[in-house]
Amino acid sequence: MTWTVAPEPYDSAVAAALWRAYYTEVSDRWYLLHEGRRTDPAELEREIAAVSGADLAPPRGLLLVARYADEPAGSAGVRLRDDGTAELTRVFLYEGVRGRGGAGLLVRAAEDAARASGARRMILDTRGDLVEARALYARLGYAETEPHNADPYAEHWFAKDLD
């Protein structure tokens, strides 16, 4: 089985399914940890619909989709800033394909795309309960930094020079 990574329109059916799976998982993890319950279905639908993903449209953004054995398997987004920095977001793999090298492949593809667009640095944020994500970023050379945003759910901020 092989991996491929390619740009995907942010508003495609594949992108929508990956966004739904990503948001459902991170939301449920937060609610289970903090309130002992899954996300309320009405809240889940409202929040999924509230974020169109248009910030991942070229030329200032990019959504990458990984496919495993030609089936959609995960995503990573890149947002370009005016200061030569790119932000990594929506890094996600379906549970059934985790542990097969796809996450690192997605992040490296996002770095390559950011670099090709002129970015010299990649930043990201994540939560404390997303321990797998934090381990991935550390393994790929990201260092924890001071906060670069005021996202109420962000607890860890990372950066990596792309030069």
Automatic annotation (TrEMBL):
List each copy of the N-acetyltransferase domain by range: 17-163
Domain of life of the source = Bacteria
**What keywords is this UniProt entry annotated with?**
Acyltransferase, Transferase
One Pfam annotation reads Acetyltransf_1
**Cross-referenced PANTHER family, in alphabetical order?**
AMINOALKYLPHOSPHONATE N-ACETYLTRANSFERASE-RELATED, AMINOALKYLPHOSPHONATE N-ACETYLTRANSFERASE-RELATED-RELATED
Q: Which named protein is this? A: GNAT family N-acetyltransferase
Organism, scientific name: Streptomyces virens
